[in-house]
Amino acid sequence: MLRATFIALSQSKSLRSFAEKTAIGQRLSRRFVAGTTIEEALRATQAMNQLGLGVSVDNLGENVTNAEEAHHSARLYHELLDQMASRRLNANVSLKLTHMGLDVKESLAYEITSGLVEHAAKAGNFVRVDMEGSAYTQKTLDFVHRLHKNPGYAGRVGAVIQSYLYRSEDDVQQLIAGGIRIRLCKGAYKEPPEIAFEKKSDVDANYVKLMKMLLQSGIYHGIATHDENMIQATVDFARHERIPASAFEFQMLYGVRRDLQQKLVKEGWRCRVYIPFGTEWYPYFMRRLAERPANAIFILKNLLRS
After folding, report:
1. Contact between 253 and 275 (Cβ < 8 Å)
2. How far is residue 254's CA from residue 200's CA, in Å, rounded to a whole number?
């Protein structure tokens, strides 16, 4: 019930407007969002690197309504890529296609995203195309497949797969066949039972099944989870199959399970932290609470202390 409530709240335009414009809303977000500027995101990235953690930076935003907004979003990503290179950071970027103008015009989104992947390729970096709700799943995967087929972009663009969707096993098989890197997560959107598993046990079982496919593929993938059972299943499988720690990485969210991030690094596993920043943080923040409602209690306790 709490998960459904937070997901519903994430779609409230009035609450979003209030939260993003008030000081208390911004204070609440700081647990999961690095700040509102590129410089704040880069400082957080450097701090994570010093702890032995890789980073993927995301400028928060989605569903832009005009080409000007989409081009502005792209300029921020180009600056990020330049700064990552000049500061020699262990970091790449993540983006949403609706932030690049997918709802405005598909050709616009492709042109913008292609330009970013080209920039990343020249800099020896990488672009992760994030997954959004199921209405965008096929379009997003089509974009990634098309980009990856460009000879200059191979290995420089990757996709995200959500284990709660029934279709994900087939999608994983197609992405692996194309040699495309995948971030595997459980999924953070409310989807109908016709297309998604409803029970956590089924989502978890599919996650483990897909994880094994990824680790056996010989492609460098990201296993994105804070669930200790999923992490242990991955560690056990890797050890049993003698898959080296250098062959994949765990991925976690900024501000979530910092203790577990450090534990994995100390045990010799690779771990990358997803660092979001920007003024449009509200939908992302609410989806994080939906994934783990206990986070809401934690944040309120810290707010009261301060």
Report:
1. no
2. 23
Cα of 27 vs its chain's centroid, Å: 22
pTM: 0.85
Structure tokens at 128: 């992760």
Q: At what angle do helices 168-177 and 200-215 cross, to 10 degrees?
A: 10
Q: Are 172 and 161 in contact (CB under 8 A)?
A: yes
Note the pLDDT tens digit of each residue in 19-39: 556 665 565 666 678 888 999
CA distances from 236 to 16, 97, 205, 240, 248 (A): 42, 35, 15, 6, 14
User: pLDDT (tens digit, 9 = 90+) per residue, 78-108?
Assistant: 999 999 999 999 999 999 999 999 999 999 9
Q: Closest Cα to residue 183, out of 167, 204, 168, 199?
A: 168
Nearest residue to 42 via CA among 4, 81, 6: 81
Strands 248-253 and 181-185, bridge-based pairing? unpaired
Please give the positions annotated as active site.
130, 183
Give the whole-angstrom CA distance, residue 9 versus residue 22: 17
Q: Are 163 and 119 in contact (CB under 8 A)?
A: no
How many Cα neighbours within 13 Å face the side chain of 51? 21
